[in-house]
Specification:
By secondary structure, the protein is α/β, with parallel strands linked by helices. Helices cover 45% and strands 15% of the residues. The chain contains 24 helices and 24 strands. It has a seven-stranded mixed sheet. Strands 2-5-1-6-7 form a five-stranded parallel sheet, sandwiched between helices. Strands 8-9-10-22 form a four-stranded mixed sheet. The longest helix is centred in the N-terminal third of the chain and has 28 residues, at 75-102.
């Protein structure tokens, strides 16, 4: 079922909108009417109002003006009243929606006041915005609620309905013309909407899909739509996204700016598959990356388009490092994750991942992450490279994540990164930085290594580099190391044209939105909240993070992180775990998340932790 929201409706404008929707076959559910009907007929709701505000219900009849005089102008009392009534309104609307479904209706009109205040935003596919003069709205509020003109104007100014609809709706229709013009707008809108949502059978999927599936086990619902930081299930429920497509959606789901560029390219019949041929889409992106990212940072890299996924670019980096140096070995860090193909898996530390190869994974020496031990790891690496009795040969490369995401949000110290770069230079070892998950602005700058002022020899990018969640991976190569011969590392899909379009748009968007500044501001919100609200729940909890990737470590408490994550999902938050035994709750929202959504998600985590760790927690 697709729901059309009517917002800001007063007088003939709203009436016209509802009539048009009916004529086009839509079931109309006017939440304003539902609300006022309940105020007249629902004895249970009236009883709850009378209990909260004595004297406002006399003889089973609500004394509206008396109630208005009590609650309006007092935010706490108004919130208390809303808390009572919204549950009843939502229940009644849900019942009417169910009836519409049984009748086979594919469209419904729902007044947006209840969408906003009753949490029904998940149902809204398109918005019919009805413009009404402020004077008319003020007069209506004063007459209906018995409030002052000043307070009526204050309420109207506080609604901010446009901001809300930009987050939750895909189409906006403004009723600012005659009836026929508006009707034609609606017809075009309705034709553009998909058909009836066909909900899948989870049992069927479990029967047909390989047992290798994983995220569907953690989040066992059918997702049908997503917008920025919200995902919507087939049953209409909205979920806040702190998972971010495992880092592939830094700019949010269906970012309007990026989507517009991709759709325009498709409308123009732009080429969609070209292997590594010259195309305008690729040239535009390469030039934008050079102009907006590389040159301002005094970086000079050749750009290699690899296969669709990050692991393929890791494979290319390892192959090139071995070719250039003539050596086979690689140093990787404990806790590392670099991908699931054999080469990338050989430099991935987790035993469960490695066992999945079912063959030996040679040519890698794992050395301790600086956060894992108490001694000077750089001195230790130096000893391995120089002592004739260490038993370790000089490697071709040292591959690192400056912040290990799957490793449990382990942030390498800045001074350590500088010393590692110097060590690699001293011994002629190439430094590979895997920025697949923590690049593209995740740590507060486009590249995660910028904070250390170092220049890696090879940089691996994927996930959010496409800007839109489209498959894409790149290897950035210092020019003097670009020694591949033609097609030495290739693949049919090494050059996703739509991803190039999205990637260029993403670079433009991050500049316009001043995304780095946003990340630094939101980083403080997350860090302060975790330190003040979450960690005091148990002295054994730990917090690590940078930018907009943070982890709450439950390892010392025991096997509870899974229960916390499941409780978060039950409350409407999609969130992942990482680290040893998945003991770290991993907070990784889109960089574009609003501060209000950030606060909402953090509160869900707090309440979930209170539930799992014990009701007596602060």
């Amino acid at each position: 079922m697709f729901v059309i929201g009517i917002t800001g409706g007063t007088g003939t404008g709203k009436t016209t909108a509802l009539e048009v929707v009916r004529e086009l076959g839509g079931a109309v559910i006017d939440c304003d009417e539902v609300y006022h009907h309940l105020l007249e007929t629902d004895k249970e709701m009236l009883g709850a109002i009378e209990e909260a505000f004595p004297g406002t219900v006399e003889g089973g009849v609500l004394q509206r003006k008396k109630l208005g005089q009590i609650v309006f102008g007092d935010p706490e009392k108004l919130l208390k009243l809303n808390g009572i009534t919204h549950g009843y309104v939502k229940k009644a609307v849900d019942k009417r929606l169910a009836e519409a479904r049984r009748e086979g209706k594919t469209l419904a009109a729902v007044d947006a006041i209840a969408l906003i205040e009753g949490g029904l935003g998940a149902l809204c596919q398109a918005t019919v915005a009805v413009t009404a003069p402020e004077e008319a709205r003020v007069a209506r509020l004063m007459a209906r609620e018995g409030i002052t003109e000043e307070y009526a104007r204050a309420r109207i100014r506080a609604q901010k309905s446009e901001d809300w609809f930009r987050q939750h709706c895909t189409v906006t229709l403004v009723n600012d013309g005659g009836r026929e013009e508006f009707a034609e707008k609606c017809r075009r809108c309705f034709r553009a909407l998909p058909g009836e949502v066909q909900t899948m059978s989870i049992e069927t999927m479990e029967k047909l899909e390989s047992a290798v599936r994983s995220y569907s086990r953690a989040f066992p619902v059918e997702f049908v739509r997503a917008k920025m930081s919200r995902m919507y299930a087939a049953d209409g429920r909205a979920y806040l996204d702190f998972f971010d497509g495992a880092g592939a959606l830094n700019y949010g789901h269906n970012n309007d700016y990026i989507k517009e560029k991709i759709l325009a390219y498709l409308e123009a019949d732009g080429i969609t598959h070209a292997l590594d041929m010259f195309t305008g889409a690729k040239a535009d992106f390469f030039e934008a990356l050079d102009e907006k990212i590389l040159r301002p940072r005094n970086l000079s890299y050749r750009i290699m388009s690899c296969g669709p996924t990050g692991t393929n670019a890791v494979e290319a980096a390892l192959k090139l490092a071995r070719k250039v140096t003539g050596r086979t070995g690689v140093f990787a860090l404990t806790g590392a994750f670099h991908g699931m193909t054999l080469g990338a898996l050989s430099v991935t530390a987790g035993v469960d991942h490695r066992q999945g190869a079912h063959v030996p994974l040679p040519f890698t020496n794992f050395v301790p992450h600086p956060n894992a031990v108490s001694f000077d790891t750089i001195d230790y690496y130096e000893w391995l490279l120089t002592d004739n009795y260490s038993g370790v040969e000089k490697p071709a490369a040292f591959i690192i994540e400056t912040t290990q995401a799957e490793g449990g949000i382990q942030v390498a110290p800045t001074a350590w990164l500088k010393r590692l770069r110097a060590l690699c230079d001293k011994h002629g070892v190439l430094l590979i930085v895997d920025d697949i998950q923590v690049g593209c602005g995740r740590t507060g700058s486009f590249f995660s290594f910028e904070r250390a002022g170092i220049v890696p020899d090879l940089v691996v990018l994927s996930k959010s580099i496409s800007g839109y969640g489209l498959p894409m991976s790149l290897l950035l190569i210092k020019p003097e190391l670009d020694k591949f011969y033609p097609a030495e590392h290739n693949g049919t899909f090494r050059g996703n044209q739509l991803a190039f379009v999205g990637a260029k748009a993403a670079l433009e968007y991050r500049e316009q939105a001043d995304l780095d500044a946003q990340v630094h501001r939101k980083e403080k919100i997350v860090s302060d909240y975790i330190e003040k609200e979450l960690l005091p729940m148990d002295e054994r909890l730990k917090h690590r993070g940078i930018g907009l990737i943070h982890g709450v470590d439950f390892e010392e408490i025991g096997d509870v992180s899974g229960a916390v994550a499941r409780e978060c999902f039950r409350r409407g938050l999609v969130i992942e775990r990482s680290g040893r035994n998945d003991c770290v709750l991993k907070l990784m929202p889109a960089l574009t998340i609003t501060e209000e959504e950030l606060a909402e998600g953090l509160e869900i985590i707090r309440e979930s932790m209170k539930t799992i760790l014990g009701g007596n927690r602060p």
